[in-house]
Amino acid sequence: MYIKQLSIFLENKRGRFTEVAKLLGKENINMTAFTVSENSDFGILRLIVSDTDRALQVLRDNKYAVSEADVICLHCPNQSGALGRVMDFITGAEIFIEYMYAFSEGESAHVIIRPDDIEKCEKVLKDNELELLAASGLYKF
To answer: What is the C-alpha separation between 130 and 2, in angstroms, rounded?
Structure first.
């Protein structure tokens, strides 16, 4: 149960994120979750959107360097210690996390995970009866 995530490489210049947000908004593509990482020369905007295929096309048509990757979205309680328990399962299975980011709403948290072995990570999480969301599950709130 993977979710498609887009990674956009942006020059580290004022207004570049604004351009992407406005472009996707103009096309009625909702950014459901995102994170930005940067260094002195460029940034990487990673995002989950309401229409991945369309966003990919729009971004490429507008000359953005964009790639697509599979990630896992874990649904867990928004409470102290919940993520630590989940990470014990992942660490115990010797899965390396390339990166992750999270967002929460009320009593629920959603954690986007990019592991080095996505199939193994999905199996470990499911075997431990943890709830994974499909892309459609991200758009309910």
So the answer is: 14
Alpha-carbon gap, residue 95 to 39, rounded angstroms = 26
CB 76 within 8 A of CB 83: yes
CB 93 within 8 A of CB 120: yes
Are 138 and 48 contacting, i.e. CB atoms less than 8 angstroms apart? yes
**Residue 39 — very low, low, confident or very high, per pLDDT cuts 50/70/90?**
confident
Average model confidence (pLDDT) across the chain: 91
- CB-hemisphere CA count at 13 Å for 79? 5
Q: Buried b vs exposed e over 85-106: b needs ≥16 C-beta within 10 Å?
A: ebeeebeebebeeeebbbbeee
The residue to which tokens 């996707």 are assigned: 24
Distance CA 60, CA 67 (A): 10
Measure the N-to-C terminal CA separation of the chain; round to a whole number of Å: 19
- Average pLDDT over every residue of 25-41: 89
